[in-house]
Amino acid sequence: MNLDFTQMTPYIPYMLEGIWVTLKFVAVALLIGALIGTILALFKISGPAPLRAFAVAYTSIFRGTPLILQLMLIYFAVPQLTGYDITPFLSAITAFGLNSAAYISEIIRAGIQAVDKGQVEAAQALGVPYRAMMKDIILPQAFKNILPALMNEVITLTKESALVSTIGYLDLMRRAQVVGASMYRQFEPLLFVGLIYWVLVMILTLIGRKIERRLKASDIR
Amino acid sequence: MISVKGLIKSFGDLEVLKGISTEVAAGQVIAVIGPSGSGKSTFLRCLNKLEEPTGGTVEIAGFNITDKKADIRAARQEIGMVFQHFHLFPHLTVLGNLTYAPMKVKGETKAQAEEKARTLLKRVGLSEKADSYPASLSGGQKQRVAIARALAMEPKLMLFDEPTSALDPEMVKEVLDVMKDLAKSGMTMIVVTHEMGFAREVADRVLFLDQGKLVEEGTPDEFFGNPKTDRARDFLEKVL
């Protein structure tokens, strides 16, 4: 057994810093994804035909090609085509944001459409205006349908974020590789950041469950 | 209160209502009966434009809702509706269900709306359920809350779309009792129903629909005692 974690000790703060780098870019990408995803979902549900077609094509392209390909395209194509030297961070949030928008739009669309049509009719029959109906009646119920899938997307994004190590962005994963190269020992740092990813995902899972339980208050018999 | 002339409703090629005309005066209770697929529910849903009529005119509660310029939201505030499957708002408490529309649509204050809601809950016998969520109620209780929710808008008339069809048999009576009480108070009511007992006892007039046509109408005594058409006779033989 040739395992020695002691050599790694001086590098630990460097690797821990990667947590914030990873979380920062995941959070920004998620925000972009949620924003564009919501707009795409509304296009799909109630947009005019051209916008609906655009949203469907968008989703098809971003779900139908590998994320790492999208990341590489943005990172390498932008400088080649425009001369603008795009940073790894900007490439990362663009690729991950645009990609998760496609998934989130499907999650939101399904969530809204899963709300019983009777809810719309009940609100209409009471004379409730469209906006108020969406805000107070439909979306709160849709959110409950959406949350588990959305939490899943956050977790996926957190794990997939390791892909940005391929364009030299110094996230958790990349830092493990850097440390591994300078110690000539790959296994320990990889194991170390693996543990960190797992803890991050567990924390996200717990948060998701907690919110879900609070939203379920109205289901308790 | 209601004047329907030549009402036609088609879904694509399928003509569901084939020219229905009738009048309802204020304070009347009308039972709409007929075999399934006869268009009863569609007829009712055309009265508050949950279905868009294809042809004919509907005047209701002072609004000509088949006029393109009609303020349909204003009309709907005057027309209470009770659904077969209740459609309570599951994320709001019983009190929240009753106060939401009066506050949001009519601009009542919370205090006003809640006071009225509690009076209505007392009337339907559910005072102690004000803070419960719909999921914790029985079917009969849900439907009584749904009736109270519609009444909270202080409508001029009430539409009931098979209000007891989704209920367990032992819960039918509690809902019918609330409806009888409402009828006695002078509310104008249009009730699509399979409850012949209710139609006979409470209705001022029975409309019999079959295959999208108003085949027969009359007082319950006339209709149940001496139906004029073969189709009504056939139907009554099957259900009574």
UniProtKB/TrEMBL annotation, chain A:
Keywords: Amino-acid transport, Cell membrane, Membrane, Transmembrane, Transmembrane helix, Transport. It is found in: Cell membrane. The chain crosses the membrane at residues 20-43, 55-78, 190-208. Pfam families: BPD_transp_1 (PF00528). It is a multi-pass membrane protein. CDD domains: TM_PBP2. Residues 19-208 form the ABC transmembrane type-1 domain. NCBIfam families: HEQRo_perm_3TM. Belongs to the binding-protein-dependent transport system permease family. HisMQ subfamily. This is Amino acid ABC transporter permease. It comes from Bhargavaea changchunensis. The lineage of its organism: Bacteria, Bacillati, Bacillota, Bacilli, Bacillales.
UniProtKB/TrEMBL annotation, chain B:
InterPro entries: AAA+_ATPase, ABC_ATPase_HisP-typ, ABC_transporter-like_ATP-bd, ABC_transporter-like_CS, MetN_ABC_transporter-like, P-loop_NTPase. It is a peripheral membrane protein. The keyword Coiled coil does not apply. SUPFAM superfamilies: P-loop containing nucleoside triphosphate hydrolases (SSF52540). Belongs to the ABC transporter superfamily. This is Amino acid ABC transporter ATP-binding protein. One of its GO terms (molecular function) is ATP binding. Keywords: Amino-acid transport, ATP-binding, Cell membrane, Membrane, Nucleotide-binding, Transport. Its main location: membrane. Pfam families: ABC_tran. PROSITE patterns: ABC_TRANSPORTER_1 (PS00211), ABC_TRANSPORTER_2 (PS50893). It is found in: Cell membrane. Residues 2-236 form the ABC transporter domain. PANTHER family: AMINO ACID IMPORT ATP-BINDING PROTEIN, GLUTAMATE_ASPARTATE IMPORT ATP-BINDING PROTEIN GLTL. It comes from Bhargavaea changchunensis. It comes from the Bacteria.
